[in-house]
Amino acid sequence: MHTGVSSPGHGLGGATRWFPGARLNYAEHALRTGDPAGTAMISVGEDGTTTHTTWAELRAQVGALAGWLRRQGVRPGDRVVGCLPNTSHAVTAFLASAAIGAVWSACGQDYGVEGAAGRFAQLEPVVLFAADGYRWNGREHDRRSETAALREALPSVRITVRIPNLGLPDPAPDGTSASWQETLAEAGECVFEELPFEAPLWVLFSSGTTGTPKGIVHGHGGVLLDHHKLLGLHLDLGPGDRFCWYTTTNWMMWNMVVSGLLVGATIVLYDGSPTHPGPERLWELAAEHRTSVLGVSPGYLQASAKAGLEPGRDLGLTALRTLGSTGAPLPAHSYHWVHDHVGPRVQTASTSGGTDIVSGFAGSAPTVPVRPGEISAPLLGVALKAFDARGLPVTDEVGELVVTRPMPSMPLAFWNDPDGARYHQAYFAAFPGVWRHGDWMTLTAHGGVIVSGRSDSTLNRHGVRIGSADVYAVVDELPGIRESLVIGAELPDGGYWMPLFVVLEPGHELTDGLRADIAATVRTHASPRHVPDTVIEVPAVPHTRTGKKLEVPVKRLLQGAAIDQVAGREAVDDIEALEYFTRFARKPDPSGLAGLPPYGSG
């Protein structure tokens, strides 16, 4: 593994070094702030089971588990992985690993064996933490057999730690595993390895939609600095606050939630469906646990609006002061909905960032205004610009989202990229010495930020680049529309086809009248260029496992690529939804697709 820096600041030779000679440990800072008798973590299951962990209990658990890992021969730089739901066990296992200088990586239990092994096997881990199963949408999912298969696929693993999330019977002892209780049986003080600023802390993985998932390595020091800034300054979190962001262990927001401990906040973990048993579940969670900052997705806010929820009126959200949103652009009408139905005193904090930097580029702050449809400002310390095709900064125009100066949380490296070639190609090939993230963005004259979607899935009508987010902001709010997906595909004959695929609410049909309503609404509220060539009903929209619509893979399918060439199956939340789009590949007359039977008939 290449642990050096592939120049996150410059992209071309020469490393960006932060605080040479400094030594620290992320876990030590995470555990140093809280009152021993205060609550560090609240873990809530889908079935309502709730556990509270005090700071003293968390320190004791981390100390005991860190001691156990050391007795297993785990050393700084070794890899420890977890196939785990979003419970307190995952946080404790990560902190114990970080305390001894081991490198952590995790994925959720909804991953199949192939998907989890495709990530973890790259790391050659020595310890695997795995739960017996998880709950989702009212069902229990037993994952004991999958854990056994995953262990077989990871020959480097010396021991597996069994975590009783569902309370299922343990397998017979075989000397290759230990129970969670066994790992905590011997008390021990927290002893933290003093590590270089750039020591690897964790490996996060890219979605894997375009090939083998890339292992993205972040360091103790860079994460420590950046998360203190984002959480402590931009979200104004501190002791006495409670912090919850809906996430799974697959997503970088899990890492961000854990970092709430750095600023002394109580972190609230929820494992389960955000809409079970009803769409109000996350609002109820925030009310019950008096959450100060709650983070959700734009889709959850739109679903709440469509369900007619009134969380501000019906629930006790008096402690809530900030509502975060990330994962996709937040449309302007959702800002108004939050103001009117959650509360005018609650700040809407739309944020844009990414797994690559395990942080944000732009977001909110208590001192900046909120403008519907915009992210309030670039985050502190982020040299954020929008570049045109010539590599020149533009204002009030759509351009490539770039960062022109180093950030501490930029990756140290990609795993197994010894010369940094893949790292350079991913971020610095387009504009030498400048980080290109792959999003379209507008930096407004008053300092706001508008993210329009991925630049590799650009819609290009009559030579004008437009963002898919503008279409979704209009279409997904229409009555009867559950979700939509728009792509622009260059055709073999030189033509360009821009279909809109829609998922309908139960009881609704895609009539000519609804198609006309969609076209008229898009024309009025977006622009004539945003009007799709045709509207087609589909049963579902495929997403990555972190909820991003798979625009580029669908586009490639329509252009004739094989499904195994466009996305790894384990990277997709619903592979059948993606497979459905193969029926539209290379149609000689795309305009005729408007009359295709929607689904279930061929």
How are the elements arranged and paired?
Elements: E1 23-24, H1 26-30, E2 39-45, E3 50-54, H2 55-71, E4 79-83, H3 88-99, E5 103-107, H4 113-120, E6 127-131, E7 133-136, E8 139-142, H5 144-153, E9 159-163, E10 177-179, H6 180-183, E11 195-196, E12 200-205, E13 215-219, H7 220-234, E14 242-245, H8 252-258, E15 266-271, H9 281-288, E16 293-296, H10 298-306, H11 311-314, E17 322-325, H12 332-342, E18 347-350, E19 352-354, E20 359-363, E21 377-378, E22 384-387, E23 398-403, E24 413-414, H13 421-427, E25 435-443, E26 449-454, E27 459-461, E28 464-466, H14 468-475, E29 481-486, E30 489-490, E31 496-497, E32 499-504, H15 512-525, E33 534-537, H16 551-558, H17 563-566, H18 575-580
Parallel strand pairs: 2-15, 4-5, 4-6, 6-9, 9-10, 14-15, 14-16, 16-17, 17-18, 32-33
Antiparallel strand pairs: 1-11, 2-3, 7-8, 12-13, 13-24, 19-20, 20-21, 22-23, 23-25, 25-26, 27-28, 29-32, 30-31
Helix pairs in contact: 2-3, 4-5
Give descriptors for this structure.
602 residues; alpha/beta; seven-stranded mixed beta sheet; disordered N terminus; disordered C terminus
Would you give an account of this structure?
- It is a single chain.
- The chain has 602 residues and is of the alpha/beta class.
- Helices cover 26% and strands 24% of the residues.
- α12 (332-342) links the parallel β17 and β18.
- It is globular.
